[in-house]
Fold this sequence. Notes:
By secondary structure, chain B is of the alpha/beta class. Chain B contains four helices and five strands. Chain C is built from five helices and two strands, in the order E-E-H-H-H-H-H. Classes of the chains: A alpha/beta, B alpha/beta, C mainly alpha. At the A-B interface, loops of A face helix 3 of B.
Amino acid sequence: MGEDMEEEYEGGIVKKFMFVNRKAPYGTIYALEVLEMVLISAAFDQDVHIAFLDDGIYQIKKGQDTKELGMKNFSPTYRALEGYDIEKLFVERESLEERGLTEDDLLVPVEVISRAEMGALMAGMDVVLTA
Amino acid sequence: MSTLHTVNKSPFERSSLQACLGHAQASDSVLLIEDAVMAALSGTAFAAKLADAGQSIKLFVLGPDLKARGLDPAKVVNGITVIDYDGFVDLAAENSTIHSWL
Amino acid sequence: MAYEVNGKSIEADEEGFLVNINDWNEELAGLVAKDEGIDMTPEHWEVVNFLRDYYAEYQIAPAVRVLTKAIAKKMGPDKGNNKYLYELFPYGPGKQACKIAGLPKPTGCV
């Protein structure tokens, strides 16, 4: 019986997780907290997706410089996600357009999808965490 | 008598900027800080509204908050002045009251 | 707690991780290593310097699994494996090497 349990643990149950970022960085702590949650989730070998919509897309805007704010610039950490095997990053096209931004303004490779496609993607997840 | 209004919430998320612009008087100054600096950029859904407000109200945006978010101070809407922390202090001193639209 | 280097006091948390990464220098690294019971060899320095470069680029201390993979990619499989890294840092490359490198404790490391 003990062996069976171990097998189940080793095999594990893989769920589809999605972390949805809707807030800009630095004004509030949400962006950094979600990023830490994402990094920790990587240890559990789950199927992790990250979505950036609304003001969340400012989290991955190129050229962030927080020196004058005296705060840590955590935007380079999004580029480390690949090394954590987290490569399913989605950005909502409408959110980019509303803010006058394009895919070229982003510091990591992402898949740009429509709001309708984002909704459908969310609907297919086992767990969705939004902040 | 004049007022310095500060707004620190994203216009995409809250209505504070809209409320502020709707209440500010002609001699007042409006300063965008923290997550409100996004409103200052040209090309956003709010650019026209800001350009319009700039006709009667003095508009400012805090440069260090733009830079932190990777937003180019050279790309702000015409009529908005980019200032630093010293400029913030000057504005606070020049106006008789400060109204923070939290 | 705090480390004393050349009469200067350098602040650390209760587990010995530096509070301010900019306080780090090689002399301090040697002192932290001694506290951990580690004699620094060129092989130890190689890992410590790798960690400092990783932090400079990504602003985090990597999880052990990620560190191992990144080292394998850069220095080959002979060094990028658990056995090699745990021989150098018996109490875990995450905890010990990060502490010596002046990095914060890896996110998710308990």
